[in-house]
Write a sequence for this structure.
């Protein structure tokens, strides 16, 4: 068994089953569609349920796939064991009422042991079967598995309750005595037991019963095959890796993390756990975000948030203090690009999401980890074994540490956490009120502390960016309502404010707070809505603040103006998309930053460059038309009569704001906008991509950023014009076309010369006809450019009818090519080129096939070409 890359192993698995009549099913999105029972796609069979339950009939009943999957039920084991992962790939072959045990077992053994495929040593393979499944045992024996390599295990019955169920066979690989972690007489020291020596690599489920609601089992009318082979495990065998993490699926991530930390993997056991967790989680979040999931406080979003935070915390353990996780996204993309090219295509967007989430958490992580270290030290010094619930809650409420992260961190130090005490604290403060770290996530769960604050507060930012006299009504600092704030972070509520609170995709305003003497006393970092609707300002306190004192609140006008432009652009873009794609197109999310805007919209199918040009053109037409932008506040029914578009089925109050861009765009919106479209200056789409099934994403820029974007592209065009020697920039396309035509002509000349040389090289070959049994044959290794030239020679040979069989080989770089042709007369007599090519291709470490009269093969061993010809002549002589 030779060392193979993960991409080679994955493709070999799929190719094998494709050769057995299976259709390759692409890896589905990790986000399940039309399956509310699943948070994530968690196995290969999860995407096949529609076929197995009969709701959808597949075009072909034989299917195979490599399915990316996520499971987080045992996340605490990741990094501590050799094979636990949050994201993994499951290779599988499936039969929907077609073949059953005999074929599944025969093909499994062929794939694993055939020299053409995985080429595993049969002596290292062990099989477990359900004791009552005598058929499976019989078929395993029939393919050559020794009786002492087949073990009956009572647990080998796949059953998840009501629905299809049946016995299964698990295949184990013996990694050798060096992996043995148990005593010889340990009851778990056998294939199928809990040990490190015998590694389970494949599970084949024979679905033959229907588990009925009354607990009985009845035979299924259509029996199914469902198999699962963990790619990461198999790769570890091929690459002789101690654990899954020392394979090409993870090592590039670990090596990259080494550059961030300055530490080396395999130097320290505790450090190694951190490296493994980071590598594992980087893969999971990259794929999850690429499939359309985003960090949030619930569901899939919480899983992503939790994984990012765990990875960041383990980065801290390695001494990484700055954001780093997002830099691993392109590394994941490079590792997986052979089968998942979409990761690299979306790497910038994915990295941006990760970096944003990571940076927000990093703002308080250093302080939190430092506090946790102090808590652990004090706990140990007091000879206590548990971190108090109050301390665990403080970490959660102030620093954003989920309880499970604190528990894991404590566990690494040999301590526990008082979970009951934590729950008591949570009951007293049902929702968090962190003393703000500028993390919008902290506002996702509010606390009784904030709920009890009912001070009126009025937002005037639609018309005023500076408020000279605003009374500070409430201060929250260090988890308490206080009358004065010292330096540090705090949350403030004023009776009147010009600062916009983040909502509807528009980011919060930033700016300053000054006292009566003009001194800057605080910097506004973030603004969110408090439970009772007030704008809650998260600030960095620079000078003491006191309630009931008057301050001047000043929004950063440049920041605000850029956000306004981009927000109005999203309204124009929203309507332009409907103009181009139809009324079915709806907004699916947006982000309005000062430097760019992001707009997600529902649309099934691809978006062409021509489509984007139309959309972009429409938006710019509206900008150049200098359309007034007006805002009115009215009741919801009147707004609907105006034709205002409501988004996301949001719940609206009695009064709503309606933003109208002339009569072109009318939408419900609580955000800030320009007074006239001409303020946008220019609109430019910079990227478009898919972020999930039926959801597309556009990123765009306006104003100065749009100008800078165009200038950079103009410079690229001018540089290209110089390189192709175009006199004027406008001549560049014609010049490029001329160069392409010239290249095409030169390529044709080269091909013609190669054909001529091939024919000259073959002149003597066709004169050397040999006899092999009842067949005349020409067999030789010649120097030509590749398979195309061999096929040309085969055409010439056929026209000249020189012999019954033609066998030619050539070397191209480090690869070997073989071609076999058989005359029509001998094909009719039963001789097939495909049979002959399969018999000789093994000499070049390759495989191939083709039609009865022409077959070809490629391989990695050019040195075996001459022996392949000898084998070919011997094979013919025996016929």
């Amino acid at each position: 068994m030779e060392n193979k890359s993960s991409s080679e192993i994955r493709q070999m698995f799929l190719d094998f089953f494709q050769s057995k009549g299976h259709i390759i099913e692409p890896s589905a999105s990790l986000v399940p569609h039309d399956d509310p029972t699943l948070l994530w796609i968690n196995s290969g069979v999860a995407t096949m349920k529609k076929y197995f339950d009969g709701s959808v009939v597949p075009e072909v009943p034989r299917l195979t796939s490599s399915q990316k999957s996520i499971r987080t039920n045992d996340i605490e084991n990741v990094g501590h064991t050799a094979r636990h992962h949050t994201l993994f790939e499951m290779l599988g072959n499936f039969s929907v009422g077609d073949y059953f045990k005999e074929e599944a077992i025969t093909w499994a053994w062929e794939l694993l042991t055939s020299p053409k495929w995985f080429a595993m040593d049969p002596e290292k393979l062990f099989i477990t079967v359900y004791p009552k499944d005598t058929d499976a045992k019989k078929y395993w024996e029939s393919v050559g598995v020794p009786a002492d390599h087949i073990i009956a295990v009572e647990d080998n019955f796949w059953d998840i309750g009501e629905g299809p169920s049946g016995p299964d066979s698990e295949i184990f690989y013996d990694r050798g005595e060096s992996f043995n972690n148990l005593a010889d007489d340990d009851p778990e020291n056998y294939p199928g037991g809990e040990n490190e020596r015998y590694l389970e690599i494949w599970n084949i489920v024979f679905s033959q019963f229907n588990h009925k609601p009354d607990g009985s089992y009845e035979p299924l009318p259509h029996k199914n095959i469902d198999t699962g082979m963990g790619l990461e495990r198999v790769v570890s065998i091929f690459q002789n890796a101690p654990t899954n993490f020392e394979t090409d699926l993870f090592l590039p991530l670990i090596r990259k993390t080494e550059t961030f930390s300055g530490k080396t993997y395999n130097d320290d056991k505790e450090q190694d756990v951190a490296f493994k967790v980071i590598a594992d989680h980087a893969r999971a979040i990259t794929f999850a975000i690429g499939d359309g999931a985003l960090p949030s406080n619930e569901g899939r979003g919480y899983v992503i948030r939790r994984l990012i935070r765990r990875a960041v915390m383990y980065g801290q353990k390695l001494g990484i203090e700055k954001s780093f996780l997002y830099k691993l996204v392109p590394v994941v993309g490079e590792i997986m690009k052979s089968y998942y090219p979409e990761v690299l295509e979306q790497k910038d967007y994915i990295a941006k999401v990760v970096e944003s989430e990571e940076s927000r958490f990093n703002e308080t992580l250093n302080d939190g980890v430092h506090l946790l270290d102090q808590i652990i030290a004090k706990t140990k010094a007091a000879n206590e074994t548990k971190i108090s619930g109050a301390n665990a809650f403080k970490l959660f409420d102030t620093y954003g540490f989920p309880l499970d992260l604190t528990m894991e961190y404590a566990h690494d130090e040999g301590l526990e956490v008082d979970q009951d005490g934590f729950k008591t604290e949570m009951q007293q403060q049902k929702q968090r009120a962190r003393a703000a770290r500028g993390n919008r996530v902290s506002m996702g769960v509010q606390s009784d502390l904030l709920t009890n604050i009912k001070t009126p507060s009025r937002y005037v930012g639609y018309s005023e960016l500076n408020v000279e006299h605003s009374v500070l009504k409430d201060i929250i600092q260090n988890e308490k309502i206080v009358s004065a704030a010292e330096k540090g972070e705090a949350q403030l509520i004023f009776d009147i404010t010009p600062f916009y609170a983040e909502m509807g995709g528009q980011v919060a305003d930033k700016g300053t707070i000054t006292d009566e003497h003009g001194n800057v006393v605080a910097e506004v970092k973030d603004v969110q809505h408090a439970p009772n609707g007030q704008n809650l300002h998260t600030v960095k306190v620079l000078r003491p603040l006191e309630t009931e004192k008057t301050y001047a609140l000043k929004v950063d006008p440049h920041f605000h103006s850029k956000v306004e432009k981009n927000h109005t652009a999203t309204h124009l873009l929203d309507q332009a998309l409907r103009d181009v794609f139809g009324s079915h197109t709806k907004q699916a999310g947006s982000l309005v930053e000062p430097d760019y805007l992001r707009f997600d919209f529902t649309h099934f199918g691809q978006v062409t460059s021509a489509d984007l040009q139309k959309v972009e053109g429409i938006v710019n037409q509206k900008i150049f038309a200098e359309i007034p932008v007006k805002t009115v506040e009215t009741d919801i029914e009147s707004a609907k009569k105006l034709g205002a578009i409501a988004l996301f089925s949001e719940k609206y109050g009695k009064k709503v704001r309606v933003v109208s861009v002339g009569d072109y765009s009318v939408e419900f919106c609580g955000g800030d906008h320009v007074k006239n479209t001409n303020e946008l200056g220019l609109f430019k789409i910079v990227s478009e991509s898919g972020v999930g099934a039926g959801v597309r994403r556009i990123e765009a820029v306006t104003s100065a950023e749009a100008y800078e974007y165009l200038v950079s592209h103009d410079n690229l065009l001018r540089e290209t014009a110089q390189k192709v020697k175009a006199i004027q920039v406008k001549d560049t396309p014609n010049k490029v076309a001329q160069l392409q035509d010239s290249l095409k002509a030169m390529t044709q000349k080269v091909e013609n010369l190669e054909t001529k040389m091939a024919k000259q090289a073959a002149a003597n070959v066709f004169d050397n006809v040999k006899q092999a049994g009842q067949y005349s044959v020409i067999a030789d290794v010649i120097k030509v450019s590749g398979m195309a030239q061999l096929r040309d020679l085969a055409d010439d040979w056929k026209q000249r009818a020189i012999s019954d069989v033609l066998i030619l080989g050539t070397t191209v770089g480090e690869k070997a090519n073989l071609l076999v042709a058989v005359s029509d007369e001998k094909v009719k007599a039963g001789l097939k080129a495909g049979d002959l090519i399969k018999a000789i291709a093994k000499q070049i470490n390759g495989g191939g096939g083709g039609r009865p009269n022409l077959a070809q093969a490629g391989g990695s061993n050019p040195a075996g070409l001459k022996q392949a010809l000898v084998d070919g002549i011997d094979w013919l002589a025996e016929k």
Observations:
- The domain at 759-878 is CATH 3.10.310.40 (Diaminopimelate Epimerase; Chain A, domain 1).
- The radius of gyration is 34 Å.
